[in-house]
């Protein structure tokens, strides 16, 4: 899947108007200079040859060289940890929020709380990240002045203060919390009809104990799968969120690379994101296999 995805990236950049040579050329550079730059970047070679050379070097950790002469590995070394911090924090907040809201609603099925959580989670999931970002900027920055509107980096290239993480994290976490809350609620509703859960309820156990000790363990496979799929959405949404908040992550690098038609950088970002998503999906599969194996 990764091989096909990266091939599609190379082909898609090839179909865009212009190329890396013209996008990164100096103002007024002549045809001879552009031709020399294209030859230097290998753009005069077929796209399949460039893809073959890039993909064969990938297992060694070589992500190629950008159109501006930087090693892609070095170019991503600083912003990638910032994106992982942003996405990881949003991921943890999503999991905790979804579990809390889903369990809260499941404890009061068909009640007012259940209906409110269902309506709120649906609305949250329907909101794109850029809409949430703009709303947070208006309320928490422009109207109240509680949080900085843009991210300022310190000497190490990371956000200067933790307050600069609050709005980007919320912008990523709100839609995915809505999605995963619905998954948690549905998984717990399915488990409520299971014989062992009904037996625990008939034994007179409290609602919280029935949910946490008997229903939740059986719901973990569905919850883990839903949370794992959110990883791709969080990393994808980071491109928009980082641009809006001037956050120093790979989303900003990716936006610049698309403008430069810089195929190695774009493919490098995709490869890093795919590696993170693959690890999370693997962990979700392990949770699912362990849970189902224990139940069988």
UniProtKB/TrEMBL annotation:
- List the keywords (alphabetical): Cell membrane, Membrane, Transmembrane, Transmembrane helix, Transport
In what way does this protein cross or attach to the membrane?
Multi-pass membrane protein
Kindly list the residue ranges recorded as spanning the membrane.
Answer: 84-107, 119-146, 158-175, 219-245, 265-287
- The answer, when asked if Cell membrane is one of the entry's keywords, is yes
Transport as UniProt keyword: yes
Task: Indicate where this protein is primarily found.
Answer: membrane
Cited InterPro entries: MetI-like, MetI-like_sf
- A Pfam family this protein belongs to? BPD_transp_1
> In its UniProt entry, what is this protein called?
ABC transporter permease
């Amino acid at each position: 899947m990764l091989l096909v995805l990266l091939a599609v990236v190379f082909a898609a950049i090839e179909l865009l108007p212009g190329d890396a040579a013209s996008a990164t050329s100096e103002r007024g550079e002549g045809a001879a200079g552009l031709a020399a730059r294209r030859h230097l970047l290998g753009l005069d070679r077929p796209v399949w040859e460039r893809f073959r050379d890039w993909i064969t070097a990938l297992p060694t950790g070589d992500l190629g060289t950008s159109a501006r002469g930087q090693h892609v590995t070095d170019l991503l070394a600083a912003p990638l940890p910032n994106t992982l911090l942003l996405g990881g924090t949003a991921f943890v907040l999503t999991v905790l929020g979804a579990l809390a809201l889903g369990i809260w609603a499941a404890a009061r099925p068909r009640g007012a709380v259940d209906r409110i959580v269902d309506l709120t989670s649906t609305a949250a999931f329907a909101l794109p990240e850029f809409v949430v970002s703009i709303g947070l900027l208006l309320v928490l920055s422009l109207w109240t002045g509680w949080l900085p509107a843009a991210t300022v980096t310190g000497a190490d290239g990371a956000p200067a203060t933790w307050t600069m993480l609050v709005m980007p994290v919320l912008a990523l976490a709100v839609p995915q919390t809505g999605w995963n809350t619905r998954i948690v609620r549905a998984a717990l509703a399915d488990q409520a009809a299971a014989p062992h859960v009904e037996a625990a309820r008939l034994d007179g156990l409290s609602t919280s104990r029935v949910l946490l000790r008997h229903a939740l363990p059986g719901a973990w496979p569905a919850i883990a799968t839903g949370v794992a799929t959110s990883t791709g959405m969080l990393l994808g949404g980071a491109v928009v969120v980082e641009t809006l908040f001037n956050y120093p992550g790979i989303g900003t690098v990716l936006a610049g690379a698309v403008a430069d038609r810089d195929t190695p950088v774009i493919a490098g970002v995709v490869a890093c994101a795919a590696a993170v998503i693959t690890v999370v999906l693997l962990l979700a599969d392990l949770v699912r296999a362990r849970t189902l194996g224990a139940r069988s």
